[in-house]
Amino acid sequence: MTNLLVGGEWTAASGGARFQTVNPADGTVLAECAEAAPADIDRAVAAARAALHDPAWADLPPARRARLLWRVADLVEEHADELAELETRDNGQPLGVAKDITVAGTAEHFRYFAGWCTKIQGDVIPVSYPDTLHYTRREPVGVCALITPWNFPMMIAAWKLAPALACGNTVIIKPAEQTPLSTVALVELMERAGFPPGVVNLLTGGPAVGAGLAVHEDVDKVSFTGSTRVGRSLVYAGAGNMKRLTLELGGKAPSIIAADADIDAAVAGNVMGALFNSGQVCAAYARFYVDRKRADEFTAKMAAAASRLRLGPGLDPESQLGPLITEEHLNRVDSYVRGARAEGAELVIGGQRADGPLAGGFFYEPTVLAGVGDEMTVAKEEVFGPVIPVIAYDDPEEMVARANASEYGLAASIWTNDLSTAHKLAARIRAGAVFINMGHVPDAATTWGGFKASGWGREMGPYAIDAYTEVKGVWTHLGGV
After folding, report:
1. In the CATH scheme, what is the code of domain 4-249+454-474?
2. For residue 392, what is the DSSP state?
3. From 248, 365, 382, 459, active-site residue
4. Mean of the per-residue pLDDT values of the chain
5. What does CATH list as the number for 253-436?
6. What is the pTM assigned to this prediction?
C-alpha cells in the first residue's frame, strides 16, 4: 500500500479511499494506493505554500539546492535496478527501456537542472530615464502542481520536478492513476535526499485530484503532460487566478520519406519511432508519407521489421514490445484499426490482440496499414498504439501542407539524403521538434513542446527555467528622493 506525502508526513487519504494499480502484462493487482480527497488537496497546497516562504527553503543558497538535486540523481542511480523493475511492472515497458532510458533519463534531468541552480540570474538593462538603474530578477512562480501521464511516469515527473525545484518553487506531484508506483518511489528518494518538509508533496488518485489542483486558488502554476482534451479543460480551470500553464499535449507526428531516402535506414528508424513503448509516446511517428515510387518497398520492409519484434512481458529480457496500458486502451487502439479497414485501408500485418501465452495481458500486435488516405480517421487522430499507417504521395511540393494539415504539432520526422531538402522542410513544418534521419530522442539540454493543439510552452533546457520563474523589473532613481 502507498500513502500521500503532505508537509513531510506520509498519511492515508483523509477519506480512507484507495485504488488499485495493475500490471498490464498479466492483469494482476500490484498495489493499493491512497485516493486523495479534496481535503488532502487543500492540505498539500497549504503545506507547499508554507514551505515556499519557510527560510529553510526560501533562503537556501542556490549551491545547496543544487546539491539536493544532485543527491536525488545519485539515489536514483543507486536504486536503478529496483526502480526499473517497478516501472516495468506498473507500466509494462521492457526492462531495458526502463533502466537505460527511464531511470537513466530521470537521473540525467536532476543532474542537468542541478547545474542551473547557480545560474538563474537577471540582467542590468539600460533604460531611457536619466539617473535610473534598472535590473531584473528571476523569482519562483510559487506553488506548482505537476500532473504526469502514464506512458513514462518517472522520467516525465523528473522533467517537471527538477526544473521547478531548481528555480526555488514548491511542488505537488500528481502521477497518473494507472502508474503511480515509480513516482511514489522517486518522492521517497527525494525525501531521503533532504528536501525540507512541504517542498515536495505527493497526491495520488484519479482525474478529480488533478482537476482539484487545477482550480485551486492557491496553486500558482500547473504543468501537465497528457491529452489535448484534458489540456483544454485545464485552460478553463486555471482561469480563475490566471495560473501559469505548461501543457505538453497530444501528437500525430508525420514522418516524410523522400524518394532519395536510404530506405533500410528509414525503416529501422521509423519502426522504433512508431513502436517504441508500443507506440505509447506523444511524439511517436504516426503517419508515414512515402514517395509513391518507394511506397511498396517501404511498406513491405516496415511490415517485415515490425513482425520480427518480440512482443512479451517487460520483465522478459527478450521482449522488445510490451503491453498497452489497460484493457480500455487496447480496445481503443483496436477500434482505430477496425475503423481504418472499414474506410478502405489494407491490413498488411497485425491488427489484433495477441493470444496464446499473452492473452491475459493487454498486448496488441504491431500493425501496418497500407493504402491509407489523409481523410481517414487513423491518419488524423492520435491512436497512441503500435499502428503504422502508410500514405503514398506523388508530389513532393505538397508534403508541407499535408504534414501541417493536423491540429497537432508536437514532432515530425524527415528521411532524405538531400540536406537542402531536409532543412527546407524542417523550417516549414509546424512542429516543436523535427528529427532528420533519426528517431525522437528528447534531451534534458534542449527544448521540448508543441505547436497548435500539442501544447503551450516548453520543457527542458533553459526554456524550463523560463517556465518556472517570473521576471521582476526593479527601478531605482539614483538622483536622490
Report:
1. 3.40.605.10
2. E
3. 248
4. 97
5. 3.40.309.10
6. 0.97
